[in-house]
Input
Amino acid sequence: MKFLKRFDYLFEKNWLSWVISFGGIGLALLAWHLSVHSIEDKAYIRFKYRTEEIKATILDRITIYENVLRGGVGLFASSEEVTRNEWHDYITSLQLARYFPGIQGVGYAEMISESDLPHHISKMHSLGFKNYKIRPEGKRNLYSSIIYLEPFDYRNQRAFGYDMFSEPTRRAAMKRARDYGEIVLSGKVTLVQETSNDVQAGFLLYAKKKKKNRPLRTVEDRRNALLGFVYSPFRAGDFMKEVLPSNDRSIQLEVYDGVKKSSETILYDTDNVLQANLSTADSKFTVEYFITVGYQNWTLIFYSGPDFYSQTEKWLPRIILAAGTIFSIFLFLIYSVMREKLIAQKLVEQKNDELELIIDSIPGFVFLKKANGKVLKVNKYYADAFNNTKDSFISQMIPCDAIDITKNNDFRNDDASIILNNKPKFNIEERWKTPTGEKWFLSSLIPIKSNDLEEISLLNVSIDITEYKKIQLQLDETQKQLAAIISQVYDYAIFLIKPDGTVASWNLGAQRLKGYSEEEIIGKSHQCFFTDEDIASGKPVALLERAKYEGHHFETAWLVRKNGTRFLGEISATAMYNSNNELVGFVKVTRDITEKTRQEEELRQLNRDFIALLENTDDYIYFKDSEGRFRFCSQALAS
Output
């Protein structure tokens, strides 16, 4: 009770240190709160700036691609006729892949009336395209056909001859370009260039090609002046890859065709998860933009990604809070120590008494000695073991004939080394001579320098493990005897397998049965005992897996000796676990049952032959059981 009262006094008289501590923690919380809001405000500004930048990049890229189409229209306007080779040379000179990344190609689609269709197809055939036809087939008042598309690679060749005017989304964009806009963007489509791999949403950009010197005041005038369209197809994923690289995880983007946000209108999604349809998106910041590109509305939704915050931004508020809290605790401790130093000194005396009781209750030797070997303190167990009082050992030397029998004169050298290097040693097994006989101890030697001592002293704590050592020695002897017995077993192959499937031990029976010596097989995989067919089917691995999860597994299989001969083996595998329930290996026992199986089969065949002989004899033969029921009768008796 007096001990508890001392602590009551400590807290009761130390109220100022508590005020300082909680005040410091309060300031740390305030600093943390302000830093969180400051970082979030700056992060949101950075997020807005980045999204505005990406939006501007998208608009700029569309403008750049519009200029590419205007260049194509200008090429047609400056020539009476643009041949396929001229178109190829012009597009090649643009170096699309280098200067206009994200564009699938630049092409020209010619408008064809129903009456001009035969002449158009005949002209294309005369140019060398013997299999040319407009797709999809069918009768229509007006056709369009892609006749130029560069680069004319594998994907773009799939679009050659395609009638874009036959598809509703493309037709709507082409009509807008024809009637109102100079350059128009289509809605979401699947490009005919797509294959079965990496299918992406697509869109197209159209610029009309018109007849020269024709009035364009009315919609009707513009329709009559139309000759075709210079256009570019885009795969949305490839287009956005140049705007927002796939390795940029700080910003996530969803692009929708129009204002409706659904899987039907999605053009591009960074992570393939439509967060716009989730009730709570897993993002700190979100912003939505509506833009118009080529008379087509797009919805851009940006989300802050998992890497948006830098590591500094993530950890700075926590560091501020932790540092402020630690500093407050530090102030509390410093003030408390200074304020209560006198009380602590009084408590030391009581603690020393309690420590003395604890040390005296330890079942082993505890003594403190100087570097020169003279004893400073011993516990009661040590004094009782040598039939003396604790005070009688003070300033005396530990007698050499009582020191570890296995080390003896080296004992003091070990002490000096520990003191010199100031490094403790733990878990040293030692034998000591005492008046009551030899005892085993588990010792730890710890160098100590206290305020009361001018030099480093050595604390020796030796726990009496004599009974444990006796049991351990008996167990070791038993294990040696068991290992000797197993090694001499002749009819059974008994060996250990490590968790990785390699052989860890080998007995005489295993050497006789399988043909391998211990030097040849230790460290090799146990799969070498199985047939090629069983190895291919995974049987060796499955055997250990079943033993691992069932504890024990038994099965019969054909096995292979070192010389290549086979035998039918009866296999038993048992999993072994340590005290921490960790797998340490398997015990595998194998017996050759080839001859036994053959004899059993011969006996069964002999029994079948004997029954057949009895059934076909002309004599009356029958068997009855103890209750008088027939169990067998010959054919002669049955007939």
Observations:
- The first helix runs from residue 2 to 13.
- The mean pLDDT is 80.
- Residues 233 and 420 are 81 Å apart (CA to CA).
